[in-house]
């Protein structure tokens, strides 16, 4: 499965609906599914999931998968990942608004992942507890260096995934990357006043 880089606002808008972005994520993570299976998973009705699957298909995010029998219509994701060209999409107010919606979806997904981890942490093996977590790092970088950091981060992930391909101890891991230039004045401005 290939990766997709979006440069058009209409394409990105197709995945900004909360149910669509979650269904696409489920198809990528768990493989093909029917509208009925997705409706059950996301506690909605089949008509709604069918409508959103057709919308995703119209923009090439999903396609019909091989059918197990002649009656069911299974759907699969067409790409392993979707990213977007921030520079191309942020040239218009509409593009900036759609980018903002997608960032909010990413934050919501991160919040769900953190909550699920916290709920399960007591049952995780100690080696997984030891390596799980989050951090926020600050660095002084040029735009070129930030681009290089993202490239190396992605390349390292690909390298480690390949190395663990046959490792029975490997399991799906959620990784989130974000790099933004700091807008506020440096110093203590980002520390809450607790006095």
Task: Please bin the fraction of helical residues.
Answer: 40-55%
Which CATH class of the domain at 2-125 applies here? Answer: Mainly Alpha
Beta-strand content: 5-15%
Unreliable residue stretches: none
* Classification by helices and strands: mainly alpha
Whole-number mean pLDDT: 88
Rg over alpha carbons? 19 Å
Q: Which architecture of the domain at 2-125 would the CATH scheme give at its second level?
A: Orthogonal Bundle
Main pleated-sheet profile = 3 strands, antiparallel
Please give the number of β-strands. Answer: 5
CATH topology (level 3) name of the domain at 2-125: Arc Repressor Mutant, subunit A
Taken in chain order, the helices and strands follow as EHHEHHEEEHHHH
Number of helices: 8
Give the overall silhouette.
globular
Task: Kindly report how far apart the N and C termini lie.
Answer: 53 Å
Query: What's the CATH superfamily of the domain at 2-125, by name?
Result: Winged helix-like DNA-binding domain superfamily/Winged helix DNA-binding domain
Describe the model.
This is Transcriptional regulator. InterPro entries: ArsR-like_HTH (IPR011991), HTH_ArsR_DNA-bd_dom (IPR001845), WH-like_DNA-bd_sf (IPR036388), WH_DNA-bd_sf (IPR036390). It comes from Asanoa siamensis. By secondary structure, the chain is mainly alpha-helical. The protein has a domain at about 1-125: Winged helix-like DNA-binding domain superfamily/Winged helix DNA-binding domain (Arc Repressor Mutant, subunit A, Orthogonal Bundle), CATH 1.10.10. The protein is built from 8 helices and 5 strands. It has helices spanning about 10-15, 20-30, 35-40, 45-60, 85-90, 95-120, 125-130, 145-165; strands at about 1-5, 35, 60-65, 75, 80-85. It has a 3-stranded antiparallel β-sheet. Strands 1-5 form a two-stranded parallel ribbon. Helix 2 (about 20-30) packs across helix 4 (about 45-60) and helix 3 (about 35-40) crosses helix 4. The longest helix has 28 residues, at about 95-120.
